TrEMBL record:
Residues 290-390, 474-616 form the Copper type II ascorbate-dependent monooxygenase C-terminal domain. It comes from the Eukaryota. This is DOMON domain-containing protein. Residues 17-114 form the Temptin Cys/Cys disulfide domain. PANTHER family: DOPAMINE BETA HYDROXYLASE RELATED, MOXD1 HOMOLOG 1. Residues 153-268 form the Copper type II ascorbate-dependent monooxygenase N-terminal domain. The keyword Amino-acid biosynthesis does not apply. Keywords: Disulfide bond, Glycoprotein, Membrane, Signal, Transmembrane, Transmembrane helix. InterPro entries: Cu2_ascorb_mOase-like_C, Cu2_ascorb_mOase_N, Cu2_ascorb_mOase_N_sf, Cu2_monoox_C, DBH-like, PHM/PNGase_F_dom_sf, S-S_Temptin. The chain crosses the membrane at residues 727-744. Coiled coil: none annotated. Residues 1-18 form the signal peptide. One of its GO terms (molecular function) is copper ion binding.
Length: 745
């Protein structure tokens, strides 16, 4: 035994040494990806195991027969028989590489010794030996072969995988609704094992919108599909729910679900496709108990930047479990959920002050490797138990970040781009830092590595010059632009215009200010942006203008002779996007897949201008709204408190009179609502957008807008709805309101 172990170690050690020295005998020898483990490498290129070993693969055998040299013959041969020559696979398509040179191509390297895609039928002869690398365990779940168990396959149509490192792709679909069922198991159908990294099945609210076509989505497929029913990750063969229970679907359970796949394509292949899916097993022979999902954790997080460990603890305390747990429940399984900063999470159970056990515990949390904690012997949870959730979120000194390093670090103080030799602030002004200014800053570098070199390192930096001999004026940054974007997919030019209007500059500019510099800011769909200054109705000049905007080539517009900006001036921002590359609507937001339309204007003296944001939501200037003033007759800020009695009556009246059909009373109410300035045009859209999370308001707007269509299509001249004497109605409303309140109380 000891002898054989010794031999294994000996061989492994030898193999490692071998392939490391031979790697340099072939082009890109240290850069060959694993064909079925996204993101990992196959350093032992000539071997049947990624780590090397004594068995050689087809390429390894050919390599040996050429004397372990890269020859024309070896280069032109297709050792693994997948239709690409070894040279093409290793980035030397013209067979011109020799040892020590840079290969012609170092992107899209594929394995010369593994027929790819590895699971294609034409590659079957390698399946046996490839099993240990790309193994497929059989799914064992006795329940799925019980009588009465039905199945449903949700399979993505053959979809092109974007040449992007990370893509989340989702469908939202109907579950069977003809009966009462328990969902008892799921089994993955993974098509492109090169790319598919994990899958999650979420339960949705009943009336969430269906999304039958696979759509690029975020980590959560939809805010209304949050409850995790099942997870799959590389190496799993399927998910078998505890045999006492099932997730109720159908008539009395989830009616819709979302399926999310994570495609991981670090080599940015552009020809991959995938049609993976998931088989759902369910039965109408209901199990003893329905499974439910309880969400615990924190509603508030505030993670400072640049800190290695920030820990949040939150409780579902005894007072709560006492109140909502009627009788003992059993915990069958549990999942942690954080996003990319999360490093560890633990959920613990306490009873009467003492810790009983962990419900989950992950010390190496990884969003992309979801883990389900399953309990064959379920954990008992009693009324009065406490559930404690602890998260550790990590932001090391240097973190891979998004385009905006942090939503709370937005204001650009300085930019550098290739070709610049430094940034010299206008000599009348400076950015105040220290006691009375910025105390923290974020420095972002963009590393551009299209050749996907894996050996490069960097320790670039920035020298900041500052003085306590303060300049005449403090510099400030004013952000202008749009708070709302809705860019339809597949359109070459979508233009958004937004204003910081005279009403705003009048209010917040006390005295003349000088613009020293300005930056445009959009994300990757942005093609052109211009910020213009208007006074008394006529255009004065451009503050910025870029007809070839490029996020990765930031441009600062500097004015040695500063631009004067007066109270009453208007600043107009125009952004144009090209969405031909997108299949889904792009909205305003922070993440790279969202868009922005901001301008950052550096001005001085800071004390003459006392806000930092003058943006608009469609045409509604947020500055007016935030100041509590009215715009086109609407006091939006006040309105959004929904404390106005007239609105509340009308709201209740819509729910009361318009429920089944648009009765005559209903139409009168609708017309009455149309006279509220905050429910007209873009204000109505804003209120709708603002209240999207509230089911009552969604219902209200649905009913209201439905009946509004009837009002608008009926010619009022017919006289039917002309009775504008609403006082009787009001009395009725007050009556109903009173009845409703009586019932509620
Ligand atoms: C799904 O159900 C059908 C019909 O009962 C059965 O023939 C099929 O084998 C099942 N599929 C799977 C993957 O279990
Ligand atoms: C559940 O499975 C266990 C074994 O895993 C078995 O002993 C038990 O009888 C099963 N219970 C039901 C309700 O099927
Ligand atoms: C490699 O992939 C990139 C990104 O998908 C693509 O643009 C490029 O044409 C590919 N190169 C080769 C040589 O296939
Ligand atoms: C906690 O302790 C009290 C007093 O000893 C006991 O009555 C109660 O049942 C305990 N609670 C639980 C959930 O065990
Ligand atoms: C700023 O620089 C200009 C020349 O670029 C110079 O004329 C002026 O005096 C300087 N002003 C201050 C306050 O240093
Ligand atoms: C901004 O300036 C206006 C006009 O001078 C003033 O009414 C307002 O109070 C100021 N706001 C702040 C936050 O200083
Ligand atoms: C705009 O015009 C009015 C009337 O001519 C003038 O009083 C005002 O100063 C002008 N505004 C600016 C910012 O020049
Ligand atoms: C976008 O949708 C169209 C039609 O639905 C489809 O043909 C195309 O492949 C999709 N493109 C991407 C990148 O998903
Ligand atoms: C309303 O009446 C006008 C004039 O009588 C007519 O042209 C129009 O089509 C009518 N509209 C609807 C929606 O019935």
């Amino acid at each position: 035994m000891e002898v054989s172990l010794f031999w294994i170690f000996f061989c492994l050690a030898r193999a490692v040494l071998c392939f490391e020295s031979y790697q340099s005998n072939i082009p890109n020898g240290n850069n060959v990806p694993h064909p079925c483990k996204p993101g990992s490498m196959w350093p032992g290129v000539g071997h049947k195991l990624a780590v090397g070993g004594k068995n050689r693969n087809y390429f390894g055998k050919d390599f040996e027969s050429t004397g372990k040299m890269w020859t024309q013959t070896l280069c032109r041969k297709d050792s693994d028989g997948d239709g690409k020559t070894n040279g093409e696979e290793l980035g030397d398509p013209n067979c011109i590489w020799s040892q020590g040179q840079l290969p012609e191509i170092s992107k899209n390297i594929t394995h010369p010794g593994v027929c790819e895609p590895w699971n294609h039928p034409r590659c079957q002869q390698q399946w046996k030996w490839l099993e240990s690398e790309c193994n497929k365990k059989e799914f064992v779940c006795d329940a799925i072969s019980e009588t009465g168990v039905q199945n449903m396959t949700v399979q993505f149509p053959e979809s092109k995988i974007p040449p992007r490192e990370t893509t989340y792709i989702c469908v939202i679909f109907d579950l069977p609704q003809d009966n009462d069922y328990h969902l008892i198991a799921t089994k993955p159908l993974i098509d492109n094992t090169n790319i598919v990294h994990h899958a999650v099945l979420f339960g949705c609210e009943d009336d969430v919108e269906l999304e039958p076509i696979p759509t690029v989505c975020d980590m959560v497929p939809n805010p209304r599909c949050r409850e995790i029913l099942s997870t799959w990750t590389v190496g799993f063969s399927g998910d078998c729910v505890h045999n006492h229970t099932g997730f109720r679907i159908g008539i009395n359970g989830y009616k819709r679900a979302a399926l999310q796949f994570h495609w991981n394509n670090p080599a940015l292949h552009s020809t991959y496709t995938d049609n993976s899916g998931l088989i759902l097993y369910f039965t109408d022979d209901l199990r003893t108990h329905d499974a439910g999902i309880l969400t615990v954790g924190a509603n508030y997080l505030n993670i400072p930047p640049g800190v290695e460990r920030t820990t949040y603890v939150s409780y579902c305390p005894a007072q709560c479990t006492d109140m909502f747990i009627n009788d003992k429940v059993y915990i069958a399984s549990a999942n942690n959920h954080m996003h990319y900063l999360g490093v560890s999470q633990r959920i613990e159970q306490y009873r009467n002050g003492s810790r009983l056990q962990d419900i989950t515990s992950e010390t190496m949390y990884n969003y992309d490797n979801p883990k389900t904690f399953r309990y064959d012997k379920p954990i008992e949870l009693f009324p009065g138990d406490t559930i404690k959730t602890t998260y550790v979120e990590l932001e090391p000194i240097q973190t891979v970040c998004d385009m905006v390093p942090n939503p709370r670090c937005r204001e650009m103080l300085s930019t550098w781009t290739v070709g610049f030799n430094g940034d010299c602030v206008h000599n009348h002004t400076g950015f105040r830092i220290g006691i009375n200014g910025y105390k923290r800053a974020a420095l972002q570098f963009h590393w551009n590595n299209p050749a996907l070199h894996s050996t490069y390192t960097d320790n670039s930096g920035l020298i900041l010059y500052f003085t306590d001999d303060l300049r005449t004026h403090d510099a400030g940054i004013l952000t202008v632009g749009a708070n709302y974007l809705n860019i339809p997919p597949g359109v070459e030019r979508t233009t958004y215009v937004s204003y910081c209007p005279a009403q705003c500059t009048d209010m917040f500019i006390n005295d003349k200010v000088y613009i020293a510099s300005a930056n445009n800011h959009m994300h990757y769909l942005g093609v052109s942006q211009r910020i213009e200054q208007y006074r008394n109705g006529s255009r004065l000049q451009d503050i910025t203008s870029e007809t070839m905007y490029n996020y990765d080539n930031p441009k600062t517009f500097r004015y040695d002779k500063p631009i004067e900006l007066f109270p009453g001036d208007t600043i107009k921002t125009t952004c144009t996007y090209n969405s031909l590359s997108k299949n889904t609507t792009t909205y305003f937001g922070d993440s790279t897949t969202d868009e922005m339309c901001f301008g950052f204007i550096t001005y001085f003296p800071k004390q003459n201008l006392n806000i930092s944001l003058c943006t608009s939501w469609k045409s509604i200037p947020m500055c007016v709204i935030r100041s509590g003033q009215s715009y086109n007759g609407c006091y939006l800020q006040e309105f959004l408190k929904f404390s106005e009695a007239r609105f509340m009556w009308l709201f209740n009246a819509v729910m009361e009179f318009c429920d089944k059909q648009c009765s005559t009373q209903c139409l009168e109410v609708v017309e009455e609502i149309e006279t509220l300035p905050c429910l007209i045009g873009e204000f109505r859209e804003y209120v709708k957008h603002f209240m999207e999370g509230s089911p009552q308001f969604r219902e209200f707007f649905k009913i209201f807008e439905n009946c509004l269509k009837i009002v608008e299509s009926n010619n009022l001249s017919t006289g039917v709805y002309q009775n504008n004497d609403v006082s009787v109605l009001y009395i009725l409303l007050i009556f109903f309101h009173a009845v409703l309140c009586f019932i509620c109380n």
